[in-house]
Design a protein that fits this description.
This protein has 120 residues and is mainly beta. 0% of the residues lie in helices and 60% in strands. It is built from no helices and 11 strands. The strands form 2 sheets. Strands 2, 4, 5, 6, 9, 10 and 11 form a 7-stranded mixed β-sheet that branches. Strands 1-3-8-7 form a 4-stranded antiparallel β-sheet, with no helix packed on it.
Length: 120
């Protein structure tokens, strides 16, 4: 089975930085798009950033210029570098990956999340 494990969350003051990591393990033939989502208390989960297999990133408007998504396919790892953090960035951050687990077998997997809290 495939697992995604996030790390790097924590408590930080507004204006600070954090780097989140997500490592995939298990029966993996290949990893396609990877992404980070977040969910604030009382809100729906929202897409924060995506990165294609080829390394092309995309961001939701609210984090453009502040967050950077990157990946290392050989290490089966995706990172989210977050800078100039704001209290509105508070939430549980989830890693998401579209993974090929066999011949013509693809599935989207989720991590369990890591808490990010930004104090004002």
């Amino acid at each position: 089975q495939v697992q995604l494990v996030e790390s790097g969350g924590g408590l930080v003051q507004a204006g600070g930085s954090l780097q989140l990591s997500c490592v995939a393990s298990g029966r993996i033939f290949g990893i396609n798009d990877m992404a980070w989502y977040r969910q604030a208390p009382g809100s729906q989960r929202e897409l924060v950033a995506t990165i294609t297999r080829g390394g092309s990133p995309d961001y939701t408007d609210s984090v453009k210029g502040r967050f950077t998504i990157s990946r290392d396919s050989a290490k089966k790892t995706v990172w989210l570098q977050m800078s100039s953090l704001k209290p509105d960035d508070t939430g549980v951050y989830y890693c998401n990956a579209d993974i090929s687990t066999g011949w013509q077998l693809r599935k989207v997997f989720w991590g369990e999340g890591t808490q990010v809290t930004v104090s004002s």
